[in-house]
Structure formats: structure tokens, C-alpha cells
Amino acid sequence: MRTVSLQFAALALAWGSSFLFIKEGLAGLSPVQVTAARMTIGAVVLAGVAIAVRAPLIRDPRAVAHIAVVSLTLCVIPFTLFGWAEQRIDSGLASIINATTPLMTVLVTCVALRSERPTRNQLAGLGVGFAGVLLVLAPWASGAAGSAAGQLACLAATASYGVAFVHLRRFVTPLALPAPSVALYQVGIGAFVIDVCALAVDRHAATATPRVALAMLALGAFGTGLAYLWNTNIVAAWGAAAAASVTYLTPVVGVLLGVAVLGERPAWHQPVGGLVVLAGIVLSRRGGRAPRPPDGVPDRAARRPRTTPR
To answer: Over the stretch 229-282, which tens digit does the pLDDT of each residue have?
Structure first.
């Protein structure tokens, strides 16, 4: 359990700093190129890990198909949306909006898993959380319309994360596949898809300055490669909702780095709204039901001892 807790802390740091690295990468790359660079580097790192631990190949076509869905919804789509959004909003604000991921996970669970009816706490938590979202977005504030598209893109990205966490927990985790294999296939498939897209449709002239290159190396190796290995282990040990709660910490890291490195100055309502979002997350998870495996699929991972992050 201690190992999983350490991975949780490392994941919070890796994903919290990702918003800074995305912002740095956009100084010379397009959003699609940032996604392609981070996923290609991440796939190389994970390939090295898989070789070192002799991770087996995944031969079941259905398992690979489910991992491909996770790859698109947990990597390709949200990464590109966050990159596009950070051309319009601060990295710290993007990290705050990213904190809605657990709420989106609960919402997707309520919609997609009909057998798991939402509790009163979950419904109340969703209401409180999305009130916090409105406070973060501040549609009444001067100049809010200028960044509305970027903020909505971040919300679309977290909705994609919610779909991914539920799909991962429901269809991939019960198969008890080795985490290095799952992470490699997930990032590798996504890297192939986004690299093809970058070559086929993105005509942006890349400028790889040393600062941009270092940001992409850090984003790819830690925020994408090792992070998804850690994430797969956490989902297997704690479940989707607990794994998604890593976003309790990522906005703190993201805002602090944005202020310290980029000189960003968040408006008062943004961190306050973020706290309201987190309050909604805590409320939605009180007395929540443990996720159940799909009919006919033995949830081997669910029989492992589980805990909650602290």
C-alpha cells in the first residue's frame, strides 16, 4: 500500500506540472504537436520499462480494443484539448478546471452504469461541484468571454477523462493485465494515432528551442510515460473514483508553478471556485458504492485489499 501511495504522490506532481510544460511547449509547437511529442516520448519510456521488467504482450483483441478506447479518451483527446485551451488561458486556470475530473467520473458512472444508481451524496456533490465550476468560469467577470472557449475545452477534456476512468475500471482493470503492458499499449496506440494526425493535417512549423525540448522531455517521460504506469497501478488498487481524486492535488501544483515560473496571477474566484469543486468531490464520494465488474467478468482486481489516498 505504501508503494501505491508513493505512486499517487508522484502522479499528482507529474500531472500538476504538466500544465506548465504544456504552456512552455506551446511556445514552439502546436497543440497537436505537443500531444504528439509527449506521447511519443512517453511510449519510448514505457517500452524501456516493459523490456526491463519483461512485460508480456497483450494478445486478446478485445483487451487491445478496450485499451485503445482508453488511449483516445485518457490521452489523445484531452491532451490536445488542454493544449488548445492553454493558448487562450493560464496554465494555473487549466489545472484548476482539471480538478473537475472526479465529478465527471461520477457523472459518467451515473449515466453509463445504470446498475449503479447515484446516491443522494453523489447528486449533492455534483450540484456543489458544478456550482464551483461556475465560480471558476465567472461568466459575469469582465473579459470572461475571451477565455470561455479555452475553459470549455478544459471541461470537455475532463469529461473525456471521466469516460476513460470508468471504461478503464469496467473493461480493462478486471482483466488483471500487467500494468506496464497496459500503460505501454495505451500510450503507444495513442502515440501512433496522434503522430499520423500531426503528419497528415498539422502544418504548423515547429520551433524546438532548448526550453521547448526540455519541457517536452519532462512532459513525455514523467507526465505521460511513467504517469500512466502509476495511474494503471492506482486504478487497479483503489478503483476509478479514488484514482481520479489525484486531481485534489494537481491544481495546487499547477497554480503554484504557474505563479512561480510564468508569473501568472489567478483571479480570486478561480482558487475559491476550485475549493468549492473539491468540496463537491468529497461530498460525492461519501458513502459511494464500490464499482462493480461487468456481468460475467470476474473482477480479480476488486478482490485485492483497497484503501483510500491520504
So the answer is: 887 788 778 776 667 677 677 888 898 899 999 888 888 888 888 888 888 878
Q: For residues 90 and 258, is the Cβ–Cβ distance under 8 A? A: yes
Residue that the C-alpha cell 468560469 belongs to: 137
Find out whether 80 and 255 touch, Cβ atoms under 8 Å: no
Cα 63 to Cα 66: distance, rounded to the nearest angstrom: 5
Dist. CA 12–CA 19, nearest whole Å: 12
CA-CA distance, 2 to 119, in Å (whole number)?
A: 31
List the end-to-end C-alpha distance of the chain, in Å, as a whole number: 11
What's the rounded Cα separation, in Å, for the pair 12 and 111? 27
* Residue 19 burial class via C-beta count within 10 angstroms: exposed 0-12, middle 13-18, buried 19 and up: buried
Per-residue pLDDT tens over the stretch 58-94: 999 999 999 999 999 999 999 999 999 999 999 999 9
Whole-angstrom distance, CA of residue 258 vs CA of residue 27: 15
| Entry pTM | 0.82
Closest residue by Cα to residue 156 from 257, 50, 264, 84 = 84
Report which residue type is found at 306. R
| Look-up of cell digits 458544478 | 130
